[in-house]
Amino acid sequence: GFDELIEAQPDAIFKLNALYNQDEDPSKVNMSIGAYRDNNGKPWILPVVKKASEIVEKDPNYNHEYMPIAGFGQFTKAAAEILFKPNDHLLKEDRICSIQSVSGTGANFSAARFIAEQYAQKNGAAVYISNPTWPVHRTLWESVNVKVETYPYWDAKNRRFDFEGTMDVMKSAPEGSIFLLHACAHNPTGIDPTREQWKSMFEALLARKHLVVFDIAYQGFASGDLDRDSWALNEFAKSNKDFFVCQSFAKNMGLYGERTGCLHYVAKNSTVKRKMQSVLCLIQRNTISNPPAYGARIAAAILGNPELFEQWKEDLRTMSSRINEMRSHLRDSLVALKTPGTWDHITDQIGMFSFTGLTPAQVQFCQEKYHLYFSANGRISMAGLNSSNVDHVAKAFDHAVRS
Ligand code: LMR
Q: I want to staple 186 with a disulfide (CB 3.0 to 4.6 A). Which of 2, 182, 210, 344 is the partner?
């Protein structure tokens, strides 16, 4: 059986991570996968997560029972509260349907599957993703048989957001298309629209009655401020149009492997919310049955305790400010080396990644000659940099650009 099977390509991001692990050169640098590292290059258990996990495990009610199909209620409610704080009337009006997911990927999957079955299969709508985007966005929507189109997000020549190109597509796409938007800290470019640009985009999306799905994987991690990073989706929420939000706690709580996330749907009213809840629960039951418990318990402990919540905000600032220091250091080193080109984009960008502008050949050069591991599109995970390796990385980039 299965003799005709076509072998699938390994995932490019995870493959780089594996190649890094195999490399025995002491100067190797891992800038592949988007996961935070401390200044010693080590994974960081957030101090607040350490405290919360002790509280969770000491709880006399702690056990390994199943979660409800929709997930841990204390977690999903608190997750909605931090997301929609400026629009808390939506919670009071019981218009937010929140289903715990297998992190952001699971939220994206459940949203895509629901929209495929209940919307795209009926009206033929395509989903528009940014070019470029996190690669799984494309393959995941393709896996539920929704046609994938793109909007031209990255203006490579000027190394900026292609606002005009994006607006053109939003205006010309067939009415009722699906638009997937990165709510903050765009992956892979690190470039977000300005608030004025967001407002114009929302006008176009609303005028064309497009269905919007926000993906938010970096709330608080990007700027160090939870409310600033959720500004765009809260601005959109003012319109009263229904929409989806895929929320991950992988990066902002460092709960990568615990798969902690939530899918939210903001409904027109509580009746639609209730119906949506029932249908999303059916999808959940048929895919994962019920979601993972441990990370949700930790997140709920943090979000539900004012003292831990404050400490979490402190931990978020620790991560985002270290990344910003590395941005400045890398740019300054390249400027000091007089590396051809301009490098301000490194400090203008935000979040986990910098889109360096290096070509695939230059990326290859850096890997072969300097043992740097990062995506062929020139994306570096900023968290891979630290005070011991940033000058080495700058030297490698300088050499690559001059070669
Ligand atoms: C990334 O883009 O590196 C992260 O979001 C991790 C992943 O799952 O790809």
A: 182
